Structure formats: C-alpha cells, structure tokens
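#lab-general

N.A. 3:47 PM
ok so I finally got the sequence cleaned up, no stray characters, all 76 residues accounted for. can someone with queue access submit it? mine expired

B.Y. 3:52 PM
send it over

N.A. 3:53 PM
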Amino acid sequence: MLILTRKKGQSLYINDNICITVREVGSDSVRLAIDAPREVKILREELAEAMKSNKEAADQQNVDLSALKDAFIPRG
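B.Y. 4:20 PM
back already:
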C-alpha cells in the first residue's frame, strides 16, 4: 500500500489516464475528484463489499425450480 500526503487542490496520477484531486478537507472527511475514462469502474468501498456479499449469497442459493413451480402453478 502506498500512503501519500496531499493538500487541498493537489493531485496524484495513476497511469497516464486517472487523476485524483483533493477538493476539500474536513474534520472527519475528504472530498476527492476523480477524472478517469468511462470504462474505469469506480466504486465506494461499502458498495463494492455489498456487491460481493450479494454475489456470494446468490451463488450459495441452490433452488429446486421444479418444487418452486409446483408451489405456484397448480397442476390440473
């Protein structure tokens, strides 16, 4: 992990196409501006974790579709 110190208005670059600029510094938060190509996926940590948890839960589901169908579609 790389740890850098930046002040308001200062930037850092990742490769040649991603620029992160410090916009505001508060008592318990920092506002960042990220300039990156549209194809670069940028997610807040809590959203990335939620997506991972949802995918893991979906992968663990082993639903018997025929039993589910029988529960909702009466035979006749």
